[in-house]
């Protein structure tokens, strides 16, 4: 029973029809490859644009999933920090298709998350990026301004007794939450709404010492108020158990759309068992990795077909290597901001049946074979193309130009190729960057090479390409006759039943030596190595084919040898240095300053942000920062660096991707979660590479 507290804001449902009609543009307007049966939503009046999200998750189950990242939700100035970190660690660069949020003060204060609401509306309106939202803080005690409120014991019975303080605060809290969610419905934004998560875990106020009955009472009350009383029909209800094996008594059957697993400290393969555990609650419900610290290998989707994953904000840094982040986001099954719209309008089609191969490895700086910056095709031709290839400046993976061709999606395969003899002795991989437009229900590509007199075929595996940058890679280890590459190219195949004309772009074909000390470039390598070295072998290869795998008339070109090169003095940063340093700076450090800022604090801990500025003229390829805590504080979690702490003495060294620190003002940043009182640390409390800062 609701109290007599004013509910004037609750009577907004009369606008629902207009909201629903305005949302129809998000539904697919064409027949998709698979018939769609509407998923049974918990809300019988769920808005069509939100229903479409559920239906597409069902349609593409086990084929694709959304890549997701929780943002720093307590600091407006850092709201894009985690998505930007994903972008910085991937090449081709990707932003997540899903972003996680949390009401900063849990709804205890009105409009406490307006900046978050604005970002969510912009994400969905401009890029079809879907939000998942949770809430932690209790509506009681200090009204949610204290981080520890979420862990307090709450007498839930009193929250349902009229006239009590608990009841009054609880109703205000629900109203504040509904007001924020109302803004999202007004903007036609579907929300993966994840309240009261990790049920039965016993650590949050909604289930701490209260049991399953009161938990279900809270869930039912919120569901009824938001859906029925306030008329919010944009909410997709996500429920998550606290631990594997939790009793089914905690499950709000009939009031949940998606079942989520919040999984920490598990290896990728163990996620299959978490997926299976969710089957105890329902075999038919959509399932998701609603929170996790360690990315599951997308190759496991066939056995654990989660609809999406969401890495918990800074856990991304210390549980996932850059290589794992790269390979997950480069995998054809992971949807990102460049192609997430295809799932909502149903144009992804069926995933390729060809073996996609291993996830794309981290790209490395290499010797440029083809970059088209001189305005010529540099020897590239094509077969079965509608037009092209031609040089253009409409798109480029690096520099200003690429080659462009058009493919008839109803008449593939087609290819672009370079019939040039190459000697790749000593090289480890070859890579090319692609982009495509108007791919219909799907266009796949594979980079291939042909070697030796037997025309040995080796390819990268099939990758679906779209309007983003797709990186195709061939690992050269074990390839026979690598000193006699006869031809290389890219073969295109449309999915069955596809039609229309796709435009494809290709750029920046490179080869290189694998070197673990090299950085992952964020915008393509900056080196300007010669495109085609002039050293030539003594023999002239023959029988280079012009189109198919069957050898035809050979060219007269003399083979070009790609020298074995181990790059030196390449900085270990990815912050786009303008040039490679000409000399390795010494590790003795130099003048510096440090900005230490506490961005959040509570009774027993704090979040700190540290920015280090290198004031000396010379750059640093690697850095370490040392300081001492004044009062026994400890660091429980650190990001953007590697931590070593002995007593009060702390050393932070650079991560693999941010070691380069330019001279005359170059900066590096790291942050951490501290335990204890908030310390006062002026700039001269820090040392950069052994030298005290100013």
From TrEMBL:
Q: Which residues form the GH26 domain?
A: 48-338
Recall the GO molecular function terms of this protein's record. Answer: mannan endo-1,4-beta-mannosidase activity; polysaccharide binding
Name the Pfam families for this protein: CBM_2, Glyco_hydro_26, Mann_GBD_bact
Q: Which GO terms describe its biological process?
A: substituted mannan metabolic process
Q: Where is the composition biased (Low complexity)?
A: 519-578
Q: Which InterPro entries match?
A: CBD2, CBM2/CBM3_carb-bd_dom_sf, CBM2_carb-bd_dom_sf, Galactose-bd-like_sf, GH, GH26_dom, Glyco_hydro_26, Mann_GBD_bact
Composition skew (Polar residues), residue ranges? 579-588
Q: Which family does this protein fall into? A: Belongs to the glycosyl hydrolase 26 family.
- What is the protein named? Cellulose-binding family II
């Amino acid at each position: 029973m609701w109290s007599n507290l004013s509910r004037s804001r609750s009577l907004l449902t009369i606008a629902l029809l207009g909201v629903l009609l305005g949302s129809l543009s998000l539904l697919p307007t064409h027949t998709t490859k698979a018939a769609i049966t509407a998923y049974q939503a918990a809300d019988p009046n769920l808005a069509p644009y939100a229903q479409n999200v559920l239906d597409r998750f069902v349609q593409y189950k086990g084929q694709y999933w959304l890549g997701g990242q929780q943002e720093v939700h307590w600091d407006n100035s850092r709201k894009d920090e985690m998505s930007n970190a994903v972008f910085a660690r991937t090449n081709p660069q990707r932003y997540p298709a899903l972003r996680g949020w949390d009401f900063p003060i849990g709804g205890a204060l009105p409009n406490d998350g307006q900046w978050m609401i604005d970002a969510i509306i912009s994400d969905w309106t401009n890029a079809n990026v879907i939000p998942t939202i949770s809430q932690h803080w209790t509506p009681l005690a200090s009204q949610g301004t204290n981080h520890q409120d979420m862990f307090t014991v709450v007498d839930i019975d009193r929250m349902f007794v009229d006239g009590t303080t608990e009841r009054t605060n609880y109703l205000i809290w629900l109203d504040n939450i509904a007001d924020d969610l109302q803004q999202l419905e007004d903007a036609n934004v579907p929300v993966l709404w994840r309240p009261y998560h990790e049920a039965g875990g016993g650590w949050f106020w909604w289930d701490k010492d209260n049991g399953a009955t009161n938990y279900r009472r809270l869930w039912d009350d919120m569901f009824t108020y938001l859906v029925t009383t306030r008329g919010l029909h944009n909410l997709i209800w996500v429920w998550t158990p606290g631990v594997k094996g939790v009793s089914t008594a905690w499950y709000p059957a009939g009031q949940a759309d998606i079942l989520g697993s919040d999984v920490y400290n598990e290896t990728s393969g163990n996620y299959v068992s978490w997926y299976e555990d969710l089957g105890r609650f329902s075999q038919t419900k959509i399932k998701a990795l609603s929170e996790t610290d360690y990315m599951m290998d997308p190759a496991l989707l066939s056995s654990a077909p989660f609809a999406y994953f969401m890495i918990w904000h800074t856990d991304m840094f210390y549980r996932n290597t850059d290589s794992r982040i790269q390979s997950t986001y480069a995998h054809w099954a992971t949807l990102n901001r460049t192609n997430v719209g295809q799932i909502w309008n149903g144009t992804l089609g069926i995933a390729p049946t060809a073996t996609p191969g291993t996830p794309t490895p981290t790209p490395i700086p290499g010797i440029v074979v083809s970059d088209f910056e001189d305005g010529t095709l540099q020897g590239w031709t094509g077969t079965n193309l509608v037009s092209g290839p031609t040089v253009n400046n409409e798109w480029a993976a690096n520099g200003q130009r690429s080659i462009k061709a058009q493919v008839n999606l109803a008449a593939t395969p087609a290819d672009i190729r370079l019939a040039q003899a190459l000697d790749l002795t000593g090289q480890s991989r070859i890579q090319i960057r692609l982009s495509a437009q108007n791919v219909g229900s799907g266009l796949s590509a594979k980079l291939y090479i042909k070697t030796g007199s037997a025309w040995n075929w080796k390819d990268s595996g099939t990758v679906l390409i779209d309007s983003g940058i797709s990186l195709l890679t061939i690992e050269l280890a074990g390839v026979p006759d690598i000193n006699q590459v006869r031809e290389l190219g890219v073969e295109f195949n449309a999915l069955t039943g596809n039609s229309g004309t796709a435009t494809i772009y290709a750029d920046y074909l490179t080869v290189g030596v694998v070197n673990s000390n090299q950085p992952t470039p964020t915008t393509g390598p900056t080196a300007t190595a010669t495109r085609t070295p002039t050293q030539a072998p003594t023999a002239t290869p023959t029988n280079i084919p012009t189109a198919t795998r069957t050898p035809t008339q050979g060219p007269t070109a003399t083979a070009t040898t790609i020298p074995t090169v181990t790059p030196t003095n390449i900085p270990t940063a990815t912050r786009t240095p303008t040039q490679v340093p000409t000399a390795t700076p010494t590790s003795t450090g130099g003048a510096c300053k440090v900005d230490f800022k506490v961005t959040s604090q509570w009774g027993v801990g704090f979040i700190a942000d540290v920015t280090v500025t290198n004031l000396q003229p010379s750059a640093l390829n690697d850095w370490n920062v040392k300081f001492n805590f004044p009062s026994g504080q400890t660091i429980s979690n650190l990001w953007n660096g590697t931590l070593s702490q002995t007593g009060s003495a702390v050393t932070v060294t650079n991560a693999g991707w941010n070691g380069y620190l330019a001279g005359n003002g170059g900066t590096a940043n790291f942050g951490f979660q501290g335990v204890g009182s908030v310390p006062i640390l002026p700039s001269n409390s820090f040392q950069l590479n052994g030298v005290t800062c100013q």
